[in-house]
Amino acid sequence: MAGSIDWQHNGALATVTLSHPARMNAMTRAMWRQLRDVFLDLSIRTDVRCVLVQGAADHFCAGGDISEYPAFRFDPVSLMHFHEVEVWGGLQAMLDCPLPMLALVRGNCMGAGLEIASCCDLRLGAAGSVYGAPIARLGFPMAPREAALVQQAVGAATASAMLLAAESFDAAHMLQCGFLAWCTPEEGVQSQADALLARMLQLSPQAARLNKQVLRSERPIQGPTPASAYAYAASPEHREGVQAFLDKRRPEF
Q1: Gap between the Cα atoms of 12 and 51, Å rounded
Q2: For a Cys-Cys bond, which of 54, 149, 157, 224 suits 104, CB 3.0-4.6 Å?
């Protein structure tokens, strides 16, 4: 089986699944292109409020599908196209998606999987999950933009250990360094993910998009805040959220 990026939505929740079980969901070139298409589609949908990103079966993603590498990695032009167009195209589509995204990580989260998880806003890891990017063993570095993405998500010390010492880390370490927001025993990870998603779906989608926009902004906090940041003031969701709190009832967004 060549692998695929499968997605479906149940009400306002979209579930995106990295599916290549024969290779622990390793990403093929076709899967990177599919990832881009899926998130471009999700970015313009009005019926989806939240996205769950997961791997099929027992793993999140073990990295890239190395069986494809000899066909393109040894030519600078084709290698650049792979990283700058195919891989970064998928990652950029995720980064640009305005919807809140939760990564549910089981098993291996290595290389490409680490990059995909780094694009998500929240990450929940099973206690037995493992993280790393031991590509130095294969004789090549992580592409610059991908390395910057991972370093921002895992922190400089952990990224350096992954890339310079081919170190892998357990979920407890990734929780401590801030990559994971939650670490849960394997038997409870799905129920915790379901509870988190249910909670997120009850919140204002407008607030989620605006909070995400601010959190993802690279603009330093300096000078006065532009008036556009408060353009939501008279919006129905803003009014409903405040009024529901005053009424001691659940808001209806």
Answers
A1: 9
A2: 54
| Residue 10: CATH number of its domain | 3.90.226.10
Residues 221 and 178 in one domain: no
- Do 194 and 243 reside in the same domain of the chain? no
* Contact of 123 with 117, CB cutoff 8 Å: yes
CA–CA distances in Å: residue 202 to residues 166, 206, 234, 237, 242: 41, 12, 20, 12, 14
pTM tops 0.85, yes or no: yes
DSSP states of 73-131: TTSHHHHHHIIIIIIHHHHHHHHH--S-EEEEE-SEEETHHHHHHHTSSEEEEETT-EE
The reply to whether 222 and 151 lie within a common domain is no
Classify residue 252: in a domain, yes or no. no
Residue 132's domain comprises 4-200
Q: Of the ranges 3-17, 50-64, 179-193, 206-220, which one carries the lowest mean pLDDT score? A: 206-220
Give, as one character, the DSSP assignment of residue 221: S
> What mean pLDDT comes out for the span 55-66?
96
Nearest to 151 by CA among 160, 143, 164: 160
* Whether residue 220 sits in one domain with residue 126: no
